[in-house]
Specification:
207 residues; alpha+beta; Chemotaxis protein chec; 8-stranded antiparallel sheet; 6 helices; 8 strands; 45% helix
């Protein structure tokens, strides 16, 4: 039996593998988004870090910054949570790209149809991310129906912090910038596997 990983004592190779998983997942998600909105989306090389929960809200603009959070629980051979977050301006831009609308609508006023489109964007992005993780590791991973909220970053991030704070205090943050010819937006993937799931991922890759 493989011993359980200690996130505070990871070696460079283990950390590099987690970062590469983040890179590949974000790249696949960006490709899926391009196909969904039928427009070329470019992505900068993501910044991947293993951070404590309490540090995450500062990365996304502060605990009181209004964001869109799309949350999934992970099941199968990997347990945990995954979240995709973006600020309201980024969410508005993606919805407008998908629906062929102009960017002059207010960022904080989404119709029911636009909220549904946002939810579907999150579903496609997360599905592509998890699909790439499954292919890389040959581990079966399924996700729940997405739960979407528009709230302060601190409030949204408190959900995984409460759920997983009892087994660990770190999450894998993949911060990336993506956009079309006219606008670039920041998006944040937050992957929070259980410690056993981190171990299973790294073990599947021979580490």
């Amino acid at each position: 039996m493989v011993s359980q990983i200690n996130l505070n004592e990871m070696d460079n190779m283990q950390y590099d593998v987690l970062k590469e998983i983040g890179n590949i997942g974000a790249g696949n998600a960006t490709t899926a988004l391009s196909q969904m909105i039928n427009s070329k989306i470019d992505m900068k090389v993501p910044n991947v870090e293993l951070l404590e929960f309490k540090e995450l809200s500062d990365i996304v603009g502060g605990a009181e910054n209004l964001v869109v959070g799309i949350l999934f629980t992970l099941e199968g051979q990997i347990d945990g949570m995954m979240m995709f977050m973006m600020d309201l301006a980024a969410a508005r831009h993606l919805v407008n790209l998908l629906m062929g609308a102009s960017d002059d609508k207010p960022s904080d006023n989404f119709t029911e149809m636009e909220l549904s489109a946002l939810n579907e964007i999150g579903n496609i992005i997360a599905g592509a991310y998890l699909s790439s993780l499954t292919i890389l590791t040959n581990i079966l991973i399924t996700s729940s129906v997405p739960y979407m909220a528009i709230d302060m970053a601190g409030a949204i991030l408190s959900v995984p912090a409460i759920e997983f704070g009892k087994i660990g205090d770190k999450a894998l943050l993949i911060e990336t910038e993506f956009g079309d010819e006219t606008n670039a937006v920041n998006g944040y993937f937050i992957l929070i596997p259980t410690l056993e799931s981190y171990t299973a991922i790294l073990s599947s890759l021979g580490l």
